[in-house]
Amino acid sequence: MIQVKVKVFRSNPEQPQNKPHFDEFMVEADPKDKVLDLLHRIKWEKDGTLAFRRSCAHGICGSCAMKINGANMLACEANLKNFKDPTRITIEPLQSLPIIKDLVVDQTDFFKKYDIVKPYLINRTPPPTRERLQSPQQRQVIDEATWCILCASCTTSCPSNWKNPNFLGPAALLKSYRYNFDSRDEGIAERINVLDTNNGVWRCHTIFNCVEACPKDINITWHISQLKKKLVSREY
Ligand code: SF4
Ligand code: FES
User: Fold this and answer.
1) Which of 54, 70, 75, 166 could form a cystine bridge with 35, CB 3.0-4.6 A?
2) What is the pLDDT of residue 236?
3) Ligand 2 atom index nearest CA of 60
4) Which residue's CA is the closest to the ligand 1 atom numbered 2?
5) Pairing of strands 88-92, 65-68
6) Residue 27 to residue 29: CA distance in whole angstroms
7) Higher-pLDDT residue of 229, 233
8) Who's near 4: CB < 8 A, 6+ residues apart?
9) Cα–Cα distance between 115 and 133 in angstroms, integer?
10) What's the CA gap between 52 and 56, in Å, rounded?
11) Cα(217) to centroid of ligand 1, in Å?
12) Domain residue spans in the chain?
């Protein structure tokens, strides 16, 4: 077992007299523990007022994304043994979203941008008697884009998003790729007015922070570049 000094960002906008600050906790841990285990131990054994989100604890739901030692990642996947110094861990909320309490951020704006790109299949052709078919090759084109778990790590690590909160951001643009490149979708004409703008694909300056932050190893920047190519070539 090891002793880990965990610094956790604390903030409660409903109590402005308590200024945002870091609290430190000494936590006994197994070197194979995840950061989420540390947060549970703090909440259950040391300070029940600590607020953070989590659900699946297995990298599926995307709810436990936070900044750990300066980088966005999922607390339930962040294994202590992968940190240079596993005895010192600093945990902060995702940047650029309003804080509700401690590590819990308000994701309203993130999901509004997701809604704007119409993240669903648009096809006005009457459906066949069974399903709309797609070949394995056609499915392959969108495969990587379907891995997204909407954790918001990418969008909140994007400098273009920090500078311009109106930018749709990598997660919404990736979702747009997922549908605009789906062989069964006919909706690009309905999505183009938000994509082909300064706050759409053209605000992406290929900084690659999103790719580094993505816990699902999705090459988001490449997918955005394919959207740019499609818009320029007018192949739709
Ligand atoms: S693309 Fe990756 S980082 Fe962005 S929301 Fe999806 S899973 Fe999270
Ligand atoms: S708790 Fe679900 S992804 Fe971490």
Assistant:
1) 75
2) 66
3) 3
4) 214
5) antiparallel
6) 6
7) 229
8) 26, 27, 28, 29, 38, 80, 86, 87, 88, 89
9) 26
10) 13
11) 8
12) 2-105, 108-233
* Distance of alpha carbon 230 from alpha carbon 141, whole angstroms: 14
Residue 116, pLDDT above cutoff 90? yes
Which fold does the domain 2-105 belong to in CATH? Ubiquitin-like (UB roll) (3.10.20)
Per residue in 145-176, pLDDT (tens digit) is: 999 999 999 999 999 999 999 999 999 999 99
pLDDT for residue 18: 84
Q: What is the pLDDT of residues 205-224, one digit of tens each?
A: 999 999 999 999 999 999 99
Tell me the ligand closest to 216's alpha carbon.
1
Q: Which CATH number fits domain 108-233: 3.40.50.300, 3.40.50.720, 2.40.50.140, 1.10.1060.10?
A: 1.10.1060.10
Closest CA to 155 of 146, 144, 165: 165
